[in-house]
Amino acid sequence: MKSPITSTLDPARRDVAAAALQAALVDLVDLSLIGKQAHWTVVGPQFRSIHLALDELVTAARDFADQAAERLTAVGVAPDGRAATVARESAAKGFGDGWTKGEEVVAAIVDNIAAVVSRLRAHIDATADADPVTQDLLIGQTARLEQLHWMWQAQLA
Amino acid sequence: MKSPITSTLDPARRDVAAAALQAALVDLVDLSLIGKQAHWTVVGPQFRSIHLALDELVTAARDFADQAAERLTAVGVAPDGRAATVARESAAKGFGDGWTKGEEVVAAIVDNIAAVVSRLRAHIDATADADPVTQDLLIGQTARLEQLHWMWQAQLA
Amino acid sequence: MKSPITSTLDPARRDVAAAALQAALVDLVDLSLIGKQAHWTVVGPQFRSIHLALDELVTAARDFADQAAERLTAVGVAPDGRAATVARESAAKGFGDGWTKGEEVVAAIVDNIAAVVSRLRAHIDATADADPVTQDLLIGQTARLEQLHWMWQAQLA
Amino acid sequence: MKSPITSTLDPARRDVAAAALQAALVDLVDLSLIGKQAHWTVVGPQFRSIHLALDELVTAARDFADQAAERLTAVGVAPDGRAATVARESAAKGFGDGWTKGEEVVAAIVDNIAAVVSRLRAHIDATADADPVTQDLLIGQTARLEQLHWMWQAQLA
Amino acid sequence: MKSPITSTLDPARRDVAAAALQAALVDLVDLSLIGKQAHWTVVGPQFRSIHLALDELVTAARDFADQAAERLTAVGVAPDGRAATVARESAAKGFGDGWTKGEEVVAAIVDNIAAVVSRLRAHIDATADADPVTQDLLIGQTARLEQLHWMWQAQLA
Amino acid sequence: MKSPITSTLDPARRDVAAAALQAALVDLVDLSLIGKQAHWTVVGPQFRSIHLALDELVTAARDFADQAAERLTAVGVAPDGRAATVARESAAKGFGDGWTKGEEVVAAIVDNIAAVVSRLRAHIDATADADPVTQDLLIGQTARLEQLHWMWQAQLA
Amino acid sequence: MKSPITSTLDPARRDVAAAALQAALVDLVDLSLIGKQAHWTVVGPQFRSIHLALDELVTAARDFADQAAERLTAVGVAPDGRAATVARESAAKGFGDGWTKGEEVVAAIVDNIAAVVSRLRAHIDATADADPVTQDLLIGQTARLEQLHWMWQAQLA
Amino acid sequence: MKSPITSTLDPARRDVAAAALQAALVDLVDLSLIGKQAHWTVVGPQFRSIHLALDELVTAARDFADQAAERLTAVGVAPDGRAATVARESAAKGFGDGWTKGEEVVAAIVDNIAAVVSRLRAHIDATADADPVTQDLLIGQTARLEQLHWMWQAQLA
Amino acid sequence: MKSPITSTLDPARRDVAAAALQAALVDLVDLSLIGKQAHWTVVGPQFRSIHLALDELVTAARDFADQAAERLTAVGVAPDGRAATVARESAAKGFGDGWTKGEEVVAAIVDNIAAVVSRLRAHIDATADADPVTQDLLIGQTARLEQLHWMWQAQLA
Amino acid sequence: MKSPITSTLDPARRDVAAAALQAALVDLVDLSLIGKQAHWTVVGPQFRSIHLALDELVTAARDFADQAAERLTAVGVAPDGRAATVARESAAKGFGDGWTKGEEVVAAIVDNIAAVVSRLRAHIDATADADPVTQDLLIGQTARLEQLHWMWQAQLA
Amino acid sequence: MKSPITSTLDPARRDVAAAALQAALVDLVDLSLIGKQAHWTVVGPQFRSIHLALDELVTAARDFADQAAERLTAVGVAPDGRAATVARESAAKGFGDGWTKGEEVVAAIVDNIAAVVSRLRAHIDATADADPVTQDLLIGQTARLEQLHWMWQAQLA
Amino acid sequence: MKSPITSTLDPARRDVAAAALQAALVDLVDLSLIGKQAHWTVVGPQFRSIHLALDELVTAARDFADQAAERLTAVGVAPDGRAATVARESAAKGFGDGWTKGEEVVAAIVDNIAAVVSRLRAHIDATADADPVTQDLLIGQTARLEQLHWMWQAQLA
Known about the structure:
Twelve copies of one chain form a homododecamer. By secondary structure, chain A is an all-alpha fold. Chain A has one domain (11-154): Ferritin, CATH 1.20.1260. The first copy, chain A, is built from five helices and two strands; from the N terminus they run αβααβαα. The radius of gyration of chain A is 16 Å and the shape is elongated.
């Protein structure tokens, strides 16, 4: 189907914005699934703190995935957040199977957030000229994820 | 790691319950991702009704996935709800890419709910003797999904 | 019109579930109208307690009627909760006209709840094999109505 | 039983007010049951919009029935809102059985609201001298029902 | 001080409206104090029901007193709701001192509400031509007080 | 387009009601814009009190404009609340440009409310026979605007 | 009637507590009526601030009157908060009639609060030995009224 | 284990405070269990009023038990609120088994509250010098329990 | 007193249900007291997590005790949840006195939940034929307690 | 009057920011009036969806108009959002009179949003150097309006 | 400026109360800043628990500082809670710079609370005769701070 | 201690961001303390408006201080918001001691906000290249503070 949604951006700028947003969508859906996986499988004395903190991460990741997808639609491109796409294209680090000790969970979450932030940072630069509206959205998501990055890192000290 | 969580079920019953719950978990995570994908890509005169109804489906699917996973932990088995596992093992029908007309969306959602209900129905029978607590959880999820099945079907008439 | 809603039950099981649910629907709509009638016409020193307690009964009856009707739709059968149907088919005991003394109201409500519970109990048995999802709904409604049965009976002591 | 509730109106005025209110009570209870019946049996592409709009109608009809009944008590007359009375005396148009297409539902609801408004309008005139308090209640109900009449009619255009 | 608030009514109409409203103000402040007095001194098996119902009466009386006073200001006349004015000019029946049996409380409240309604009814007629805005306010207060009159009377049956 | 909305009023009565409501709509939209303009441009020691009080006026004016427009639709006439219509037909007094001292703001708001109330008062009389439902709506709006008229005037003393 | 409520205090201590509480009750009811009177009749540039602040005073005075009365009942003495009692026995300073300039209102409220606090202070001393529970209630009310005393005084500077 | 919590009180004062608080804890836990027992077993025409009022008593007793226990911890002593301790040391009067008539329930609750208040009153005196912070807590609990004592006694008149 | 509450179960079935429910009531009241005892006496680095998690356990135990008791009344048997009964008949493991290290608290709570679940599991089987309504209640409580069992066990890993 | 509000921007930058904000203010007030006009006059099968979606648009337009006006004040320039100014200077496309079919409404809203976004996009570029604070506000408004642009366009497919 | 706020205390008593309150104000502002400093700089496995618990401490400290300051105004003395005054006069122990390990944070918070409580305890004695209203405020703050003292100490065990 | 929190910025960029954020933190903590100081000591006819507006300023300042501090942690630098640091390094103008007339308070608050905004504006420029995430946070804080700057200035006109 020819796109039923026109963009307020010219095609070149739209493609830059769309590439950044599709990547963010995939990473954020994956981060939400990783957060839930850890939420269920963590064990150890810090169980309750980590279990609760992971739901805050999942909430952020889900909201940001929705923002990214709905910004894609706004620039006239259909998002793709399906399981197979996520499994194939995510830049997140992933998470092991089975019960996992609390300190391993913390370390894995720090690494996953760092990987997602790294792609977002690159796309903040890439979209500066192409679309400041998309850039502003990525800046807002990065601000929150870097705050979470600090909070998870702080537990490793 | 040897399982740190003991089960109140004997191993045979635990395995029956766990198989049902792991299948439900995978299907329900997939249903939540399918619901979001449709939420973003639907177009047509019924856009707003379908867009909103899909978020109700996503909410149900996410809550039920969490219930299934936390029941798995309660019977002593670590859940697996990661993207690759979902992409590989889901019994849902899936959803096409790109912008999708409203009536195609409705038909696809009906098919996906029906597929998930079908597996749940089989597991309601399978868990009746093994674990009535797990069975009760599956009955409750089926009740809500069959209600949604009616509501989505009604739009096809 | 041929039914636009397919059932996840085979026809024999669907008919058992539908018979139980249609009977419950009619009884519960009637119970809600009886409760309101008593709410308006009760007089006596216990007026305020009874007046308020009747609205709790009406709320339960309305919610359960809606549940029964929407479960009927889910098994593929159109519900019938119209005034004439209710007047003709309800198994409730009914309620007299005009102003009514508090103790007569209490006795009449106890009788009406008992009659509705009696039909529900029979249908809990009847649906055990046909559809555990429908049975579970009827069990939940019976639990609440038997609680109300105690509360109304307690006032007669 | 001799009426335990004295009226602040003389008998002639009380009878005018009571006749208007008893008629309104019956019509509004019937409208609430018709609204629920349609809520359950509507099918077609507009399912969700109509299904939701019907619950707003039901809420209004239930609240207004309660107002009318409690104004009857205030003028010293016991209301009658039982199923058989409603089935026998309602001036509403009624609603067919079985699954019903959306556009038929809309047309039937427009007709039912119009019939109820027509009786209310006549009683606004009839109660002007007899009891301005009752008249004010009927005016308020008519205002809301004529608003709903517009909203349902608008869907037919 | 010359009145700093101009009226949208001519002086003759303003005086009719103001007389009705000042009378209502005094009666309603008194009714709120009577309600509280009864709330504190009631004893007997119905203590809790009556104690709670009296606070609903007090809430209504306070709100209506405020409405009457603020309508007086709107027609350009300063209200007077001070204790001495209320003690001197109220048309309510009053309430005895000391602990009071529940049934005496109910009878006294019925009489007090009836006395206040009686003055309001007379002012509804008096303000019909002078100021329909003031009349509408008095009609609304009468509707609620006649509802409470029924509820308190019902306890005497 | 021939009107898709039928009226429950005959044409002569409908025209009286519609004229009153269209005038009220225009005045009230204008009052809401005037209130916002003053909210932004007021300066002086009373800034905060006036700034906040203006938002209460704007809220009332917006709600009443919506009521008037939706009553127009209910009597079968399409409302017109567009900027050019408001600029051309409003009976409000308007508001100057640029920063405005608090006492000038208060005086201007008193004058604008008075002008709107004056038209409403005339239409209360005009609609008494034509449509008591419309009249009741205008009475309710006048009651609130005359209360605000007092509150703004009180600041001038 | 012999008192139906026994006291946990011996008669001598009960009488000290009751005298303090009955005095507080009368003063606080009067303060609430004075606060409302001022709320309605204040005029001047500070109208809105004073009008709103008076409702905070009224709320405090009403709550404290209720506390004092319900503490009287707890020590076995029936309270008296009727209009004539308040008019006769209040130690508050009272409030003039008619429209009142803002600065006069502020001064009058400061004087009234000071008078009420003065009696409370005396009763805090008087009840120290007789009943620390009553004393604690009076301390809490004094704390809030002295806070309001500051806030009203601050406006005079 | 040597106490891990240091006290801000010297040992003699700590012991006085702790004795008062441990006694209050035991009595209040018992009062909460007695309240629930009565809540379940009361029968008679006043069933609903008593049933609801008992939950207010239970809420107060639970909150106060928690306050007493957490004040014990604050003065450096481990509380003991276990079932056997409560059964052995409570000064409350207890409650009979089986269904209980409303008037017997009321009398039993009055006696139980009186017994608990009596010990609290003694400890208010005992803690005055030892720890005014603990005393203030006991005064606050006594204030509420004496209010409830009045409300329950009032039903016996 | 002969039971004033009739049962909808025949005597044999009623006795099975009642035995299960009375046992659950006693265990759950004890669990709530144990949970509070631990809430007050826990010490160690995990203090805050454990302290908060225990209140969630207490809330569940209290709600379930209330459910069990009110189901007992519904089947016509008076519950017994008094301190001495609980101390004598509870199947829970109990809790030591004095300050308790976090890891000992966790282990003790795991053991107590396991003991309560064990009796519930036996009663789920026992009531399957006797009363599916009671069984459904026990299933629901077991589901939540097994979830809490996992969460507390997870902290031991 | 010389401006009483100093700007934190130098005059040249202030003028750039002010021009952008005054244009946005006018467009957004107009968009809010257009949205309401369509909200009242839309007819057709999609009536309810469109009617509700228009109120979301109106809410956004009103909030953004307020933001733009209050940013104008912050940079030291008095806003102008009066009806005549809006009618004369708005860049929105406007809306026809009378009843309007749903699909025409959707197309008109898409065009109006597009026109407003177009001016905002130009001003995002214009204010980048002059005032990043103003630019950030315009970016945020554009993000939301482009999201609404997608949602309204999607209905045309 | 001569004090515009008169005191209800004589000068000698006022000075005692004011000295206690000014000291409390300074200590509590400092405690709130210390709590925030620790909230930001804590690291270690207990990060989340400590980070959250610190915000509860900050909330208490801020509320109590406000209470102390507003009691100072009520006794006629202007408070001083500015940064330099706090830095110079606080009796709290302070907090080190840079990232801080969890266990050090806990120990430092215990010490700071203990220091603040110590001054409050001395002032409870000092104000007993001078002003029981001020004393009651200090008792209430001490109760809460000693509760927090226990909770923080418990983490050290 | 070597920093336990890694930064997503290189050291040079981190230092620019950190310098801006530490300055903002100090200024905003000071602004919150200044706002509270003024909140307590303001006197004069505008007391209530200014007293309330100051709490809005304090809320903003506290929230922004927390944002600045938690952004510092996110870039890997420990914040310093202690009293002595604030007293030494704040760029705010400060506030005099003792009771302060309303107009002096307004002027002082305008000056303090202006000083804080001036440093923020400089840091918006400084961080544009170094870290757009930090810049975006500073832009958002400046937007709100410039709005407050207008509101406080408007009172001086």
